Amino acid sequence: MPESWVNLAERIGSDLYLELSGAGGRRTVLIRALRDAVREGRLAPGTRLPPYRSLAADLGIARNTVADAYAELVAEGWLTARQGSGTRVAERAAPPARTRVPKRAPARPATPAPPTYDLRQGRPDAASFPRTAWLAAARRALNAAPNDAFGPGDPQGRIELRRALADYLGRARGVRADPERIVVCSGFAHALRLLFGSGGGGMLKGPLAVESYGLGFHRSILETARVRTVPLGLDEEGARIEELTGSQRGRRAARSVLLTPAHQFPTGGPLHPARRAAVIDWARTHDGLVLEDDYDGEFRYDREPVGAVQGLDSERVVYMGSVSKSLSPGVRLGWLVLPEHLIDEVLTAKGEREAWASVTDQLTLADLIESGHYDRHIRRMRQRYRHRRDQLVAALAAHAPHIGPTGVAAGLHAVLRLPPGTEQSTVKAASWQGLALEGLADFRHPDATMPAPDGLVVGYSTPPEHAYGAALEALCRALPPG
Predict the structure, then answer these.
(1) Angle subtended by helix axes 423-432 and 465-478, to nearest 10
(2) Fewer beta carbons within 10 Å, N or C terminal of the chain?
(3) Enclosing H/E stretch for 189
(4) What tens digit of pLDDT does each residue of 153-193 get?
């Protein structure tokens, strides 16, 4: 009999197939195939088999042949047949497993227990993701989407999202954003890879000036792209822009500069207005480019929002943002607002089809913005994070008044300045309290020459609401005494 396959997925959660092949008549082959399917577990105990008439029609064989096969397997105990219940795979005890002497596995280092409390930076409150609004936006967006939305994706991003972003960024962040200048990506890291490549072949070249404190992960991406980074000093007015034109350590050769001007990461504070103007003057004079990382621009508490530097000169600034802080890092959506001369190059680097950002997520985010639910979510989270910030400040004032938090006017984290020489011991003491914390030194550029104060970077957005108070108590116990 030629080999054939019969789908036995009726009332089964997943597809199972019956293979008919081998020597013998049709009845013999069918019995053997059913027996093998049960023995191998492809037909689980209790599975209802198709009526013999249906199976006979699928196989193109006589009904009596299937009826006889069922009857023999019932007699052997493989199947059961009851009036009104049909033919089912019999409930059978599993054969005892063979006893084997386990091989001794090589010794592995013990995995540390996960922390009880997490006060690391950069993570929004996962429990506050707007599930209901997102689901409603997804339904509306999918119902309204044209058919071509489900074809090969446009590497520039869906026009619905680019239009929504152009309106939102202009209104909320002061960005000069035309939809044709926006390229959708999967986040800030993806944006860096598009600009600099992954092995030295990117459209932008080094040296790249960066702030002396920042994310090591971003520096790793640039190192992979063979881009040399040169740190700029920081003070209470932000990055020292004057060092871009200095002669120290090759900084004169910097072709571009990466900044977090709305809220320096992680030390806090905006770039001073005079320095915002100075960096644009530098870019115009030296044919340079400013890369603006607006990672948490929506969250301002004790001051007016600081607009994007990109608004000062859209041809000298690449503006980059994402929803990793405002919604969730699990929603892999970000954007670049590009100078006109970089658009084609970025799209070439991205490829002919969208390979990163889900079209359905793009449409959903567009609807969320246009319906006003995104703004409402931002306002709600701004209030929640401000309250958490206030709880942190109050706990420190009550239990560690000698520790002063800085950078608390904005964002999702604060920096706690520590007495000299206490950073490492404090992080270790926090781990004994079951608390995950990061020291300020973790974010320092290895070539930075400015003084290195001791401190902690404390994220107050991550712990669930019910555990936040206990997390703050553990933090205060870990801090060095005054």
Answers:
(1) 130
(2) C
(3) helix 188-196
(4) 889 999 999 999 999 999 999 999 999 999 999 999 999 99
Q: Tell me how far apart the alpha carbons of residues 247 and 77 are, in angstroms, rounded to a whole number.
A: 88
Question: What's the half-sphere exposure (Cβ side, CA atoms, 13 Å) at 469?
Answer: 1
Residue 186 φ then ψ, to 5° = -100, 5
Q: pLDDT tens, 77-102? A: 888 888 777 888 888 745 545 555 55
Res 94: pLDDT: 53
What is the identity of the amino acid at 74?
V
> Angle 389-392-396 (CA atoms, 0-180°, nearest 5)?
145
- Strand arrangement, sheet containing 405-406: 405-406, 413-417, 455-459, 438-439
Q: Mind giving me the DSSP string for 338-399? A: --GGGHHHHHHHH-SS--SS-HHHHHHHHHHHHTTHHHHHHHHHHHHHHHHHHHHHHHHHHH
Rounded to an integer, what distance in angstroms lies between the CA atom of residue 366 and that of residue 360? Answer: 10
**DSSP H/E element including 425:** helix 423-432
Backbone angles phi, psi at 194, to 5 degrees: -65, -40
Whole-prediction pTM: 0.79
